[in-house]
């Protein structure tokens, strides 16, 4: 390798000398030498890559059990399968060409993960961990410095125990696969998690995991009983061996900062054999403003069996002109006959009627009218370019504020706003019970989401402009000091760490306190104990504090 570098140095010198030759001769020599230089550089890069592979593979073999499988789980940039594997789980097409890891590892057992951590650390490579690939900012599969992806696509086993109503689920499973396997064993058990079935369990749980049953049972993270992980030393830990501090941190504090979470033991929760989904759309001319204003004051007080969110989208009014529409979308853990009288008392102005509702099993609510087997299809999602941001609301937005919001919402390339109600169980859990601090006093969470299909910088600019404009407008009406955000709606615009990993606690607090409030310091202290050299890091990972 050293002699190849020396030859390249000679070529550069020849190029420099040739610049003093007569013009015709100079051009001829220059063209030949430039061609030779380009060819040599390509050979150098190729050999450097091969050298890295020749170092990495033996290390993996020596550290893995059984070593015979290692060549089946490692993909270098020279592998024919590398492009398809790297793109397989990238849900945000904004980053489709931004990921170029040195290697992709698709582990089949714990030792493959241990070996990847040990060997990456030894060779100076970073590690990113991907489960479902829904990371809003692509941080689970892209990095500025040389790195390795641990893709948990083959860690998808779900084991349900009806003896104690628990389950073990591996981090590479999607929540759709989890839901399907639970329902396959019992029609009266479920689990509180999100609504998008292709989201990976690993990222969802470590960010908290809110969903339509959060008002009844809390977050996904609130219902985790144990976990298996690999730490920065390559050691396999469970709850007992990792200790309660680290177990606290990975349940809502972002697991990618602390290690590779392989699997989770979760507490299953009771669900009735029949649940009800209701949808009531209202445009502005149909009174959406007053209804949205009323909803803010009562949705967090509803019976815990009711989760009624508001989805704000574009629609056409009776004149065919563009307007805003609010869809009052509900999950009720019971029948139509039960929810109608409840809503007549709690929210009579909505006018909920039986025709607005449909009964089904709990698991069918996530299949969106298709057979429940669709939940086992990891690719059942329309990929696109997207950007998300989030907020928390503690006081109802006045009608005048809503009127102004509609105007900004309708400008440019409008996306979607989703208001998820809190209250219920969410208000009963203290802010420091887990790293997820958004509990008592929160009326609802807002997601701002823009998704588009057109390629190109201009299309992206227009859609990001809408997201930023509506986010800016909402500033006076949402939480303050800090303005809070939900980790699973990751937003790099809140702030980022330095690429070299040397980020101070104070610098990271700009974004960290938005996600975690006062829990951020405890997370940083735990990070300082379990990963003091900051091996597991990304643009918004917890910095070590000692």
What is the element layout, followed by pairings?
Elements: H1 2-18, H2 23-63, E1 74-76, H3 82-88, E2 103-105, H4 110-123, E3 126-130, E4 147-151, E5 158-161, E6 166-170, H5 175-185, E7 189-190, H6 201-206, H7 214-217, E8 224-230, E9 236-237, H8 239-250, E10 260-267, E11 269-270, E12 275-283, H9 288-298, E13 306-316, E14 322-332, H10 336-346, E15 357-360, E16 385-393, H11 399-409, E17 416-421, H12 425-428, E18 444-452, H13 457-473, H14 505-516, H15 519-530
Helix pairs in contact: 1-2, 2-4, 11-13, 14-15
How would you explain this protein's 3D organization?
With 546 residues, the protein is of the alpha+beta class. 35% of the residues lie in helices and 19% in strands. The chain contains 15 helices and 18 strands. It has helices at residues 2-18, 23-63, 82-88, 110-123, 175-185, 201-206, 214-217, 239-250, 288-298, 336-346, 399-409, 425-428, 457-473, 505-516, 519-530; strands at residues 74-76, 103-105, 126-130, 147-151, 158-161, 166-170, 189-190, 224-230, 236-237, 260-267, 269-270, 275-283, 306-316, 322-332, 357-360, 385-393, 416-421, 444-452. The strands form four sheets. The chain has a seven-stranded antiparallel beta sheet. The protein has a five-stranded antiparallel beta sheet with strand order 5-6-10-8-9. The protein has a four-stranded mixed beta sheet with strand order 1-2-4-3, with helices on both faces. Helix 1 packs antiparallel against helix 2 (23-63), helix 2 crosses helix 4 and helix 11 runs antiparallel to helix 13 (457-473). The longest helix has 41 residues, at 23-63. The chain starts with a helix and ends in a 16-residue tail after the last helix. The relative contact order is 0.10. The model is unreliable at 1-51 (pLDDT under 50).
